[in-house]
Amino acid sequence: xxxxxxxxxxxxxxxxxxxxxxxxxxxxxxxxxxxxxxxxxxxxxxxxxxxxxxxxxxxxxxxxxxxxxxxxxxxxxxxxxxxxxxxxxxxxxxxxxxxxxxxxxxxxxxx
Amino acid sequence: xxxxxxxxxxxxxxxxxxxxxxxxxxxxxxxxxxxxxxxxxxxxxxxxxxxxxxxxxxxxxxxxxxxxxxxxxxxxxxxxxxxxxxxxxxxxxxxxxxxxxxxxxxxxxxxxxxxxxxxxxxxxxxxxxxxxxxxxxxxxxxxxxxxxxxxxxxxxxxxxxxxxxxxxxxxxxxxxxxxxxxxxxxxxxxxxxxxxxxxxxxxxxxxxxxxxxxxxxxxxxxxxxxxxxxxxxxxxxxxxxxxxxxxxxxxxxxxxxxxxxxxxxxxxxxxxxxxxxxxx
Lengths: 111, 280
Hints:
The complex is a heterodimer of chains A (about 110) and B (about 280).
Chain A (H helix, E strand, L loop, with lengths): L32 E9 L9 E5 L5 E6 L5 E6 L2 E9 L2 E9 L2 E9 L1
Parallel strand pairs in A: 1-7
Antiparallel strand pairs in A: 1-4, 2-3, 2-5, 5-6
Chain B lengths: L2 H4 E2 L1 H6 L6 E7 L3 H5 L6 E4 L15 H10 L7 E5 L5 H12 L4 E5 L2 H7 L26 E2 L1 H7 L4 E4 L3 H5 L23 E2 L15 H7 L9 E4 L5 H12 L5 E4 L2 H5 L17
Parallel strand pairs in B: 1-5, 2-3, 2-4, 4-5, 6-10, 7-8, 7-9, 9-10
Helix pairs in contact in B: 5-10
C-alpha cells in the first residue's frame, strides 16, 4: 500500500508554496482557514504573476503571494474579515472576505 | 551607512547590467522564480541549500561561504547587487549574511523582483557562466547577529522590534499567512518587544519608503541602547535590520536569525500574548 505523497510545503522557510499545487495532505481544514481564488482581468481572463497581498482588519499587511499561471492564489489565515489587494501590470484591485475555517473562495478583479 | 551606499534603483540596475565587477544575484528560497526568468546576467543563491548548514541549524561556515562564492565567480572586489521576491526579504537576509562575512560592497536592488516585474523590465532564462574566483571571507561580525541569550537579556532593557504581522505578534497566527498555520512553537511575542511590521518600511511595489518616513516609523527606538530585530526565521527582520542600520545609519542593531521558531520553542522563557508589548 502506498500513501499519497503530499505536495512539499515550505513551512520551515517563508517562501510561498506553489499557488497551483493541491492543498498538502498535512493541512487540516478543521483547523486551517484557507482563503483562495483567482485574479481576473476586466475581460474575465485569469492574470498570472499578479502580486496578491492579504491585509488584516486594520489594513495591515499579513502576507503576499504571486499568482500561478492560471491566476490562482492561496492564504492560510484565521477566521475574520480580510482584504485582498492585487497588483499587476494590468492594474490593481481589491476584494473583502469574511472567512471561516475551511476553504473560502473568491476572485479579485484588476483593472 | 546610507541609502546611497546600500541601495540601487531599478533604473541604475538596468543601466549597469553589463558593468565590470558588478554581479547581480537573485536570492530566493523558491528558485523556480529564477528559473522562470531573471535579471539578465544574474546568478542565483538558494536561501536554504546554499546558505544554511545541511545538518545543524546554523549558517555555512567561513570556509563553506568562501567555497560557495568562489565557485559562483564572486570576488572580494565585486559589487554584489542582491534582489529577490517576497519584497526582498531573502535578498535582505543575504545582504545581512554578506555583511556578516565582511563583504566590502554589497547593495540591495530597491523593490526587488516585484518592482522589476511590475515595471515590465527585461527577464531572461539564460544562465550566465562565470569563471570561478578565489574568495576570502572574514570571521563572522557578531556585532550584527543576536543569539537567544542576547534576546532574553534584552527583555525590558534594550530595544526589541518584532517585525511580523500584527496577528503573529498577538498570537492569533503562527506563521505568515501564505503558509499553513500548524507549527510546533508557542504563539505570541517576546515581552517588551514593540510591534512594527516590516511592511511599514516598504511601499506597495516593494521599494523602501523615504528616509523621512522611515525615521518617523522608527522614532520610538532609543538610540542610546542596542536594538534587536526578530521575526519568525530571521529574513523579514533582516529587512528591518537593513532599514535601521544600513539606511537610517543606526548603531548596534542586531538581527536575531533564530527568531520566533527558536524563541517560541524555548523552555521557560517569558512569552506575551495580545496586541500590547507586555511587562518584563
